[in-house]
Amino acid sequence: MSQLTTNYGLYSVPVAWTLAMLPHWYAIRLLSKNGVPGGFDNTNPRNQADFVKTKLSAEQFGRFQRAEAAQANGFDGLPLFAAAVGIASVARVPASTVNTCAGLYLASRVVFNLLYINTTDIKKSGLRSLTWLFGIINLLTLFVKAGQQVNSLIL
User: Fold this and answer.
1) Does the structure show a pLDDT above 80 at 30?
2) Contact status, residue 81 vs residue 16, Cβ threshold 8 Å
3) For residue 92, how far is the Cα from the chain centroid?
4) 8 Å CB contact between 113 and 19
5) What share of the chain is helix, strand, coil (3-state, %, to 5)?
6) Which of 29, 69, 89, 140 has the most other CB atoms within 10 Å of its CB?
7) For the chain, how big is the Rg over CA atoms in Å?
């Protein structure tokens, strides 16, 4: 079966989860790479920034914070992504459309994570927002296509 006939939408949900986790794994690696005593404190992970602030350089701490924020943003969008591909799949939106929109969203998440972690210039940070918007537009497209498909079956 080809990309045009096989719906990979539901298979892409674990990929989206992994892309949401990657920045966190990077942040943990950043701590161990920079010799933070104790590394990542899994007993109190939400207060990790307080713990490592004095143990990293300002640049490293900024990168750590941005990586954790990129992870949070990825998980914020994960339910919308799962709903979009799930609803589009159930509504029988053509597999090529589901695959394309899901793939473009996943690609936007890769670029978004890289931009979020590495961008420190306020003038360049708008590119990150545009990348996020591009991904969201692909998800909204799936909802619209699902609505159109359902309406065509009902009417």
Assistant:
1) yes
2) yes
3) 25
4) yes
5) 75, 0, 25
6) 89
7) 19
